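Data availability excerpt. The first of two example chains:
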Amino acid sequence: MPRNKRQRKVIAPPRFKGFKPYGCATNEEDPVELLYEEYEAIKLADYKLMNHQEAAVLMGVSRATFARIYEKARRKIAHALVETCEITTISGNSFSDQNWFLCHSCHSRFTIPRKVERKDCPLCRSNTIENIL
């Protein structure tokens, strides 16, 4: 029996819910689901130019596990680009040190300190917020 997967640490969730191809015939395939930890791996390795060991420590996984997450993310993105599929983001098996929220009124993403009892958007003061991570 395989052991349970450890949760992967994500600094912040993606600032988007998905991407759609533009200027081509729509593909009727299911969208490619990019997990938050896969997005984090791409961000750390390709955007922030960290080596795999540094990124693995930040995410709380081994270097080999980080390499597998990163490779899976690259394959998903390549598939979506070549096959013109939509990319959607889902939380997957991840956690964050902070609770992240999305405001449905102004679409801002923010954190609220755990000590604060008031739960509303700091920008527009709307209470239509959703916990996203």
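And the second chain:
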Amino acid sequence: MNRRVFSVLVDNTSGVLNRVAGLFSRRGYNIDSLTVGVTENPKYSRMTIVVTGDDDILEQIEKQIDKLVDVVSVKVLEDGSSVTRELILAKIKTTPERRQQILAVTDIFRAKIVDVSTDSMMVELTGNQNKLDAFLSLLDEAEVELVRTGITGLSRGFN
């Protein structure tokens, strides 16, 4: 199974997200990650869609997305020729004695402490999936409540 990241430029109109997601559900494909946001031009939004499958399925998905009326363009974000990032917010249960350990780990990964209470710390971290997974693996023993944005990205250069 291969993973593919699609950057899809779509019209910024109501129902577009539903039509794109509907394409996947009608064909029985799973979306691993989906992020959507308006672009520099408010007429358009950019969807970053991550899917897993064999090469034939991934090629079919790309062609089917490109056929949708609201889709302006579809690009595959390849490793090396694109930049992808993900954001996590992690609320970590802690004690005063353990707080220094968590601060040390956040410093190593250049994470930000965005909230502190007597029994927890909230950390914001941005990076590629490997970096985020490595950070979370160091918190394995801690009780963590977590949210991930999903991957977003752009191809390098203007093309």
